[in-house]
Design brief:
GO molecular function, one term: NADH dehydrogenase (ubiquinone) activity
Order of helices and strands: HHEEHHHHHHHHHHHHHHHH
Strand order of the largest sheet: 1-2
Largest sheet: 2 strands, antiparallel
Helix content: over 70%
Shape: globular
Radius of gyration: 20 Å
GO cellular component, one term: plasma membrane
Subcellular location: Cell membrane
Protein name: NADH/Ubiquinone/plastoquinone (Complex I)
Distance between the termini: 28 Å
Keywords: Cell membrane, Membrane, Transmembrane, Transmembrane helix
Structural class: mainly alpha
Strand content: under 5%
Number of helices: 18
């Protein structure tokens, strides 16, 4: 029974995460490793509650890429974190909160009851807020509050919209065939706020840039990206205007790409680029055709590992050279290799990101204006990647001393979009 698997995995991962508040790194690593138990296929109804209905959980082929990427990247970032947290002077309880944050990703996808998806979103907000508030950079208290308020706005709009529709289960939402009205608009707006798309993105560059780098490596590609799963999942029943949403996603990709060119801070540039990539993910999730899921999953996974690798590279520079300025960074051939792998994958020139972009291109509405916007969006998200890579290369070569464990984690994440390309025939058959 999947209920037994779910309860066992929850008990192990949560108990070890709480132990990590005191024991630190080993317990956090064990906590996140135990989350691999959630990947067992199956479904179960845990309980039935008044008003909100069945509290069901499920793991199927559609959820697998989102949950597996979240847990595997959580493990990689945890392996990366000790030397960085020593640099920050962070106490052991950081690891416990970090493990609970990764657990929230699993729950966001696994729960079939949208009220419990909201509760999982709340867990992700509280844990990430604590890490920004205590360990962020710059005016971290202001940034933490800005992030907390906007994240709560998104979650509450989502919850109010779900409550107004009266459809608390994902299956009920999917089959409802609702008209596009205030209720469904609030559900959509809440998810878009949490993604940080154009117009509701103001919080994102601050939070992702000023968060401690191990958090940035999860917040930027995983936390906000998971909203694309629910947009894809709920779109049919919600009656959203998919063509308009697709074009809005493309416009967000262009806008986010342009933001990158104003930055000299490595982490801030990567944060701006997340706006662009969320635009592509939104476009993929909005395609009104069968391959929408494939496009969304490919772009989510590819962006997650490539962006995390680049944030980890920025963290190496912070620890080793004490700088976030792209022009002040230096590289040797090993660091440059991570940069090239990460930026080429992010640009969509190779790796699974290339196929994700190809699917987005295949979903463009048959109008000249839509085609022109799509070309601009797909090219601009490649151009900013090579702009940043060129800026890094022009900073100059030098011998850089960096912790081997941090480098190994960054390299593993950067190589993953290419390694996964070999496994795609098994997945897409």
């Amino acid at each position: 029974m999947y209920s037994e698997v779910f309860i066992l995995a929850t008990a192990l991962s949560a108990a070890l995460a709480l132990a990590a508040l005191r024991l630190g790194y080993p317990a956090a690593l064990a906590s996140i490793a135990s989350m691999l138990l959630f990947l067992a296929p199956g479904s179960a109804v845990l309980v039935t509650l008044p008003y909100v209905g069945e509290v069901a959980v499920a793991m199927d082929g559609h959820k697998l890429p989102f949950v597996a990427a979240s847990v595997l990247l959580g493990l990689i970032v945890t392996f990366y974190a000790p030397r960085y947290l020593k640099h920050l002077g962070a106490p052991n309880w950081y690891y416990g909160v970090h493990a609970l944050y990764v657990l929230s990703f699993v729950y966001i996808v696994l729960f079939e009851n949208l009220f419990f998806v909201f509760l999982a979103l709340e867990l992700s907000i509280v844990t990430s807020f604590l890490l920004i508030w205590y360990f962020g950079y710059g005016n971290r208290r202001f940034v933490g509050l800005l992030y907390f308020v906007w994240a709560q706005i998104g979650s509450i709009l989502f919850l109010i919209g779900v409550a107004l529709t009266g459809r608390f289960t994902a299956s009920g939402f999917e089959t409802a065939r609702l008209a596009f009205d205030l209720a469904t608009f609030l559900v959509l707006l809440g998810l878009l706020v949490k993604m940080g798309t154009a117009g509701v993105h103001f919080w994102l560059p601050y939070a992702h840039a000023e968060a401690p780098t191990p958090l940035s490596a999860l917040l930027s590609p995983i936390h906000v990206g998971l909203m694309s799963y629910w947009i894809w999942r709920l779109k049919t029943g919600a009656g959203w205007p998919l063509e308009a949403l697709f074009l809005y996603g493309l416009a967000t990709a262009v806008y986010g790409s342009l933001l990158v060119f104003r930055e000299t801070d490595f982490k801030r540039a990567l944060a701006d680029s997340t706006v662009a990539n969320m635009g592509l993910l939104l476009a993929a999730a909005s395609i009104p055709r069968d391959f929408s899921y494939t496009a969304t999953a490919l772009l989510f996974v590819g962006h997650a590992f490539a962006k995390a690798a680049l944030f980890m590279l920025a963290g190496i520079y912070i620890v080793s050279l004490h700088t976030r300025e792209i022009g002040a960074a230096r590289w040797d051939r090993h660091l440059l290799a991570v940069g090239i792998l990460g930026f080429v994958a992010l640009a969509g020139l190779f790796g699974i990101n290339l196929l994700g972009k190809a699917y987005v291109a295949a979903g463009v509405p048959a109008t000249l204006s839509a085609a022109a916007l799509a070309v601009f969006a797909l090219l601009s998200t490649a151009v900013y990647s090579f702009y940043l890579l060129n800026q890094l290369y022009r900073a100059g070569e030098a011998q850089v001393e960096y912790p081997p464990d941090m480098y190994a984690a960054a390299l593993a994440a950067a190589a993953t979009p290419y390694v996964l390309l070999a496994a795609l025939p098994l997945w897409l058959r």
